[in-house]
């Protein structure tokens, strides 16, 4: 704690000095001009936001800007981040446990353009212990004369729930690389991220954890947490009402225990109904089948849970189901075909193939 507050003091002094001479412009985490997608927890001393779910996104809209940096920490086990400028991903980088200021300036900034700059945490919380693995965001520092504009986003917002395929595990790797997350995890290249782009939708929340499902290692208890592994940080589900919830779960469960699996999957859907019941127009609940390795195993069961869910309902919730084509799935799960990253998980090309197969259905469901 001493270390952090000391660093902060230095930072505060620095930003004041800088402002006095009109050189840099510090935009604190609490600024209304910063747009947050995902789950963020203010620190008790109001100096930073903690966040731990993959794909937590921090964005600004600015013009007359030539440089940008961010004051961050990556949690006990470090985290991998990515800057996206006007939709163009830059080179990912690793943020260590100490609070530090990272230059982010993306290629292609020009003074006269309006730019959207997003800083995305593309890896999971690898510490997996309470808030220890959580990243922290303190502030952006922009070049002198930068003008920040309000963030306006009218696009439909999507809440994704998934496992390693949605969290981007190994997506930047190859069958011959290790699975070190600091070089291979990338939630921006996943089927879910590519799907949001194709739908012109905003990826407003990603609650995905590698290795989890609905039955054997259930994700359900984590869904109520702001910080993935800290149950003392209850999430307020009213902060980000989605227009659709899109789920890809099941490959990590033993779906041969079919009735247990169906009950567990139904339990997840019922939790979503409960948490989003405050919405006058509840979100569409869309299940996708087609994960890597053994992704087709749970498909029939999930389809059957979906139709049962819709029987005799009067609460306006509706479930939808779509899946990858069996022929596509077989093609992209063969190691030699170029669709696989490390640990037999999809790379971005594999994710794209899954996304293309389900896109038409999901467009109909989301815009229904
Ligand atoms: C843009 O920033 C420069 C400083 O970098 C400043 O001199 C100029 O007045 C700014 N332009 C506008 C239109 O704000
Ligand atoms: C950024 O600001 C400009 C100018 O106000 C606006 O046209 C644009 O829609 C904004 N972009 C976002 C993502 O809010
Ligand atoms: C998304 O936007 C692009 C470009 O405006 C458009 O061509 C495409 O049809 C849109 N897709 C959907 C699903 O609305």
From TrEMBL:
Keywords: Signal
Entries under Pfam families matching the protein: CE2_N (PF17996)
Domain Carbohydrate esterase 2 N-terminal, chain residue ranges per copy: 36-150
Listed Gene3D superfamilies: Galactose-binding domain-like, SGNH hydrolase
This protein's record includes keyword Signal: yes
The keyword Signal is assigned to this record: yes
Stretch forming the signal peptide: 1-22
Name of protein: Carbohydrate esterase 2 N-terminal domain-containing protein
Record organism: Triparma strigata
